[in-house]
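Re: beginner question about structure tokens

> Can someone show what the tokenized structure looks like for a real chain? I only ever see the sequence side.

Sure, here's an example I had lying around. Input first:
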Amino acid sequence: MRGLRFSVWNPADTVTTIEMIEPLARRIADLGWHAQLHMMGDQIVAHAALLKRLPCPIIFDHMGRLPPSLGPEHAAFAVIGDLVAAGRAWVKLAGAYLNTRVGAPDYPDAGRIARAFVGLAPERLVWGSDWPHVTEPAGHKPDDATLLDLLDGWSGAEAVRTRILVDNPAELYGFG
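And the corresponding structure tokens:
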């Protein structure tokens, strides 16, 4: 185990609450674990002070769930960016199909957000497939190979892609 994941983006079906994040983060900090947060962009902005207080590293899942219409212009991008710049946070490039209005196969609006994070701090990014795509109905699940191929366009260079897929996860998760 390397951390706890808090999926609080939809208050109607969450088993944890935002109020539980800080006390649990205090309990895992001494273990060297991180708090992985699946929150919507507006939640990130609303709870920015809480996020800055967390005593453990943070991973923002699904690229911070920024609204596709605003992308990096949404205030949550700056909140995440400040934590990333301070060395306190990481961003998981995952869930393009969750952060789009345009849709498959290229998810260009999600790609704009991903490229903005790559431009901000490629050394603080990891990639995830989000398999098994539990939010998507059977027969409409995204193709994981296609999702991985998107990283080519987002990263722009093989060295950056290798960093996101190999070097950064090794650092974040403490691989030998």
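Each token stands for a local structural state, so reading them left to right follows the chain. The first strand starts at residue 3 and ends at 7.
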